[in-house]
Amino acid sequence: MVTAALLWSAGLIAACCVLLFARMSYEARMHAVTRSEVKLERLPEAFDGSRIFFISDIHKRKLSESFLRTMEGKADWVILGGDIMERNVPLERVRENLKLLSRIGPMYAVFGNHDLKADPAGLAVALKEAGGRLLRNENVLLERAGDRILLTGVDQPLQKRDGYPGLPELPPGTSDLCRIVAVHDPVWIQHVPEKPADLILAGHTHGGQIRFPFLGALRLNRFYRKYDCGWFRWYQPGADVQRPQMLISRGFGNRRVTLRLCCPAEMHLIRLRRAIPDQTEA
């Protein structure tokens, strides 16, 4: 009787483990787009309703051509938030991924820490060949129906102790423009006394990759446990940008193991909306 009960319990535990592993494997391999709408006070009227396709932390994953085909025509720009590759990833796979992403719209990218440790020179060439533009502490003006916004790419230091350089100088006559900053690691916000952008797009954290209900991601340090994934907002009444917002992506790829829990892989389709002051949150 006892033996039968133990066997039944062992079988139940084994079945639960198999189901859990299957779920974690499924979350890590998802091709899912998280759709968001963000209201920006300084967004020009011509940009109201425009869309950004944002993807970060691809690492060694291969993008699905059939899935990304459904994104064609749905975004005005593509922004890559770094860790586009990692060590031992064939450059040909990276080229294929970039080729697929370039079909969605004009493509801009920043480096992540794993890009710098892998093949930054090869990746830079692959981006250029795919028609993309790599932003290493550079500004670029995005234009739409005569209006302009500023996109700034912040370069990733190879080692965090190296710190971040100051933001590139603004082009003449652009200090009042709506500004989007793409940066791989959200820890960058610790290096700017005031958030200098209407919208910040970041990745790096993977959302912790393995999360537990009520406890969150246990393997993140103190900063990243606060800034793990999702949307963050501030109110800076005395600053040039009074209501900055930041999106930290859970990322598309995985580190070390192809497993996720309560933290599915994601890409983003972000719709920009022009806000009036009482529409934004303090």
UniProtKB/TrEMBL annotation:
InterPro entries: Calcineurin-like_PHP, Metallo-depent_PP-like, Metallophosphoesterase_sf. It holds the Pfam family Metallophos. Coiled coil: none annotated. It comes from the Bacteria. Residues 51-207 form the Calcineurin-like phosphoesterase domain. Gene3D superfamilies: 3.60.21.10. This is Metallophosphoesterase. It comes from Paenibacillus cookii.
